[in-house]
Design a protein that fits this description.
475 residues; binds 6-O-phosphono-alpha-D-glucopyranose; alpha/beta; 18 helices; Bifunctional alpha,alpha-trehalose-phosphate synthase (UDP-forming)/trehalose-phosphatase
């Protein structure tokens, strides 16, 4: 009997390929999605389709990459420089990303980028078609780079189960409406049977867009079009709790955390970790920290902002500008407030190995998340999972999806500088018993609603919906 396969599709594969000294290196991702879906794509005949992060030099190299990835059940979609520029940098990251993060003024609408977005989504669909897909299989498509793909796959396989998950926010319909190609994007998504978002608001915004822009009939969380029922639901993504908690409690990490603590012995560590992105509120965070040093000068020499910014999308103009602004602001704060013995901000523009991040989570007194918009934010969950045996306080932007779950964090509006400053001050002074009580509550949530739970829930619902649709058709 045919055993159904699961086909995962996302822009990036969970292994990235880099060329170093003329050698190809296969680098596994530590990201949440890669870990969460690990047990799925590595088993049976399941596969994961996506971009391997490299442009091969020639067909021979392409072949080597394809074979190397095949050993891990991964299928590459190779993209040319022109495709990456139009589809990834252009349409995905200069239209969809800013608009979906409520920065429509950052959007640059270029028709050739839209055409390239369509072309690359079609290319992904062709790669799906090449996999000898059967109607019994199920396809799970991820994120805003592939919004047209559900409908393209639906055209090839009219009754197959298709799930789509959006990892970033979905804006309200008036903001979404500003995109010239909004109808095509919505229709692209409607090829799926189940469309998942991190928060209730995201689902409502999507449903409102379908009702107000496409004029579709919406009943609760269900849409009806082309004789099909499409469900829109909330699935807040979790992390691999056990991985972070075990790492945090391991001897090497404990030792490393002690040495970080020793190094900053008279200082409380305020930790922040983000990809370089204007949605993360990095400048707003720096201003609140500067305000703290002005308002509470006695804290000079007693705190350090340990700020890691992971390089990202640095070919996109807005990201280059942001990097300059961060450099200037950090330089200014360190120059004005620092002295021979003390540097207020330890700033790193680099990616760190997981072990070092874990040691930082363990040693940090405060984790400061100031996103101006964030689909979920997994850093705060990683911090919580690392805090079973050490104290600490999470300050979390109310504009991050995670704030809906982590109600015991100190919530802030990152635009309210004084409020963020006071939240840091409160966290610095918070009694240990209160820290513990808040952490324990959050740990329970992050532990229970972990990434495996998220994957299980999504798939079981997709299967349930498929059965429901089959019964509906049989009637
Ligand atoms: C966000 C998006 C992902 C994306 C990641 C890194 O988390 O939701 O789809 O892969 O950022 O961005 P990048 O552009 O480097 O893939």
């Amino acid at each position: 009997m045919y055993k159904k396969r699961t086909i995962i599709v996302s822009n990036r594969l969970p292994i990235r390929i880099e060329r170093k000294d003329n050698e190809l290196q296969f680098i596994p991702s530590e990201g949440g999605l890669a870990t969460g879906l690990g047990s799925v794509y590595k088993s049976d005949e399941n596969i994961w389709i996506g971009w391997p992060g490299i442009i091969p030099l020639n067909t021979q190299e392409e072949e080597i990459i394809t074979q190397g990835l095949a050993e891990h059940n991964l299928i590459p979609v190779f993209l040319t420089e022109e495709e990456l520029k139009g589809y990834y940098e252009g349409f995905s990251n200069e239209v969809l990303w800013p608009v979906f993060h409520y920065r429509p003024s950052y959007a640059v609408y270029r028709t050739p980028d839209w055409e390239m977005y369509q072309q690359v989504n079609a290319k992904f669909s062709q790669v799906v078609d090449q996999q000898n897909v059967q109607e019994k299989d199920e396809v799970w498509i991820h994120d805003y780079q592939l919004m047209l793909l559900p409908q393209l796959v639906r055209k090839s396989y009219p009754t197959i189960a298709i799930g789509f998950f959006q990892h970033i926010p979905f804006p309200n319909d008036e903001v979404f409406r500003s995109i010239p190609w909004r109808n095509e994007l919505l229709n692209g998504l409607l090829g799926a049977d189940l469309i998942g978002f991190h928060t209730f608001n995201d689902t409502q915004h999507f449903l409102n867009s379908c009702a107000h822009i496409l004029g579709l009939n919406v009943q609760n969380n269900c849409l009806h079009t082309d004789g099909r029922s499409i469900f829109t639901e909330v699935y807040p993504m979790g992390i691999d709790f056990d991985k972070f908690s075990q790492l945090a409690n391991s001897e090497p990490i404990q030792t490393r955390a002690h040495s970080i603590k020793d190094y900053y012995k008279d200082q409380k560590i305020i930790l922040s970790i983000d990809r370089l992105d204007y949605s993360k509120g990095i400048i707003e965070r720096l201003l609140a920290y500067e305000n703290l040093l002005v308002k509470y000068p006695e804290l000079k020499g007693q705190v350090v902002l340990y700020m890691i910014v992971v390089p990202s999308r640095d070919h996109v103009a807005q990201y280059k500008q942001l990097l300059d602004e961060i450099d200037r602001t950090v330089g200014h704060i360190n120059a004005v407030f620092g002295n021979n013995e003390w540097t207020p901000i330890a700033y790193f523009y680099n990616s760190f190995p997981l072990e070092e991040l874990s040691a930082l989570y363990v040693s940090a007194d405060i984790c400061l998340i100031t996103s101006l918009r964030d689909g979920m934010n997994l850093v705060c969950k990683e911090y919580i999972a690392s805090k079973e045996n050490t104290d600490g306080v999470l300050i979390l932007s109310e504009l991050a999806g995670a704030a809906k779950e982590l109600t015991q964090a100190i919530h802030i509006n990152p635009n309210a500088t004084d409020q963020v400053t006071e939240a840091i001050y409160k966290a610095l002074k918070m009694p240990v018993a209160e820290q513990r009580m808040r952490l324990n509550d959050s740990i329970e949530i992050v532990k229970k609603f972990n990434v495996r739970h998220w994957v299980r829930l999504f798939f079981s619902r997709l299967r349930e919906i498929k059965l429901f649709q089959q019964n509906e058709m049989a009637r």
